[in-house]
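[[Local backbone shapes]]
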Amino acid sequence: MARGIRVILLGPPGAGKGTQAKLLQDEFGVCQISTGDILRKAVSEQTPLGKRASEFITRGALVPDAVILDLVAERLKEEDCAQGFILDGFPRTIPQAEGLEGILKAKDLVVDRVLSVRVPHKVIVERLAGRRTCKSCAALCHVVFDPPKKPGICDRCGGELYQREDDREETIAARLQVYDTQTAPLENYYRERGLLSEIDGVGKVDEIRSRVSRALGDVTR
């Protein structure tokens, strides 16, 4: 069995990080950690950290780095993370990166590699703006790459398809601008530590997976 790995996946929304994270999770038997997922779970279950986060979310404010880092620290204590982890889209800022470094140092651990998945903005907009979501079962399709058999109708359940606010072009452009502003210094942070590898995120899933494998070559031997 391949040894566990500790990898950070960076990349804008729609870059395909989640797909590559799942493939790495299956191959190496490590956990995939998305801060969005653990934040929603904590809020839903009303854990102490979830209640703290809810206070900010209710006000429409960003959840502070300290709360996000506490959520990540708690998640890393769980049994499925013992062999390693894939951090999907986290950290997003230098303070988060520094906080993560402190969490791992306390466990005598380090990150093996940081992969930055690069996709041109034009391609990101094409990928996300064409997505449609079913109002009934939440299934996803794409008007160009995976069109429904009947326009506006979900193939799975027959429900109505709609475009989420997050998938509108103007919203995507704003999200990409925020990502670029936050991530340039974060990439430099990991580049200076010799951990950053840039991955071309355009192409078929297996092509991108091959690029990821090459970038992780010395880590997984």
Notes: The longest helix spans residues 169-192. The CA atoms of residues 55 and 61 lie 9 Å apart. The beta strands are 6-10, 31-33, 85-88, 113-118, 131-134, 140-142, 161-162, 196-200.
